[in-house]
User: What shape does this take?
Amino acid sequence: MSRDHLLGRKEYCLFISPSMFSLLNQLIWREISIPLLFSMLTLTALLLLGRLIPLLEPLLGSGISLGEFGKLVILIVPTLLLVIVPVSCMMGVLLAFMRLARDGEMLALFACGVGPRQMVMPVGVICLVAWGISLVTSTTWLPESKARSKVFIAEVMQKALARGIPEQVFLTPVKGLTIYCNKTSHGGRRLKGVYIKDSRRKELSYQILARRGDIVADPKGRQVVLKLKDGTLTRVGDDFTRIDLLGFDSYILRLDLDLHEPGRGRGEMGLGELLKEARAPGNSNSRTWRYLTEFHKRLAIPVGTFVLGMLAAPLGIFFGRAGLSGGVALGLGTFLAYYLLIIFGGNLAESGVVPASGLWFSNLLFGILAIWLWRLLSRKGPILG
Assistant: This one.
């Protein structure tokens, strides 16, 4: 590419001035926005589909309405953003700079005196916005969404139980509770040949066999009772040393699905709650490590969103000739390596092998790599050799 040809590109070859920086920022933001939004929409659709497929059969069997299904989708999306945002940010920046490098526009920018220092600011703004979204998701939307979606699914499944149980289907309306009925009548509310396994309580599990049963519920389906007749109940302790076998003529089993449990899992807690649980007196070491690991993970992944985005820009410039498929493979491979390090560090931290702060190692490693690549770009330009 000749010098005269470069000077003919009016959009690049401006004198170093504030207007040039404004045009440069707009150019980079425009190039990043399209692949970023496309990556976000594609990943959201794929991950949402993967999350909903296991729920489709029980939800459709429960007679869920279109409005309830839409509400469920809205509740699930925040749980996916913790992966979607960092991947989309990295892919958007990476593909944008790969296109600029492949089409010679990056070379034109460098020839006109625009260097990495001028490019850091617009890329940094995109990465800071992505970091902010990821941080709010991790600390606020994620725990609230997990708690509400769990309650919502339990409500839908409980209403389904109130309407009746399908015939010859192993129904698991909630984790730890499985119901099977050989024959049904009256819309699935009158049962024959009933098998139930109830292990919702870790310390004691039940297995029930009954000849007949009836489902009784209030009009709104908030309270569901299964009246069983002529059967046996087997109780097994968690250590498998205590087994009781009882016969009954009539037995009443409540099918309330604990819609508002007092206890909350780690994924449903905010940062303050996680620290409080980690520092609670009388905690075992393993319990403390688990809550501290979750606390650091909630903060480390948003920072990783910023780090991966800043790393993607020099990667895109240096590997600009790899093409679209190569860029997608490079971006997904880099994110996979980062995420595997997070998971590996989390497992080590939960077992007490390394401190919970060890989760930040992946951010440190990829941050050093990003700084090195930016410095290499400053010294050698967009073409290595």
Residues 1-385 form one domain. DSSP finds nine helices and six strands in the chain.
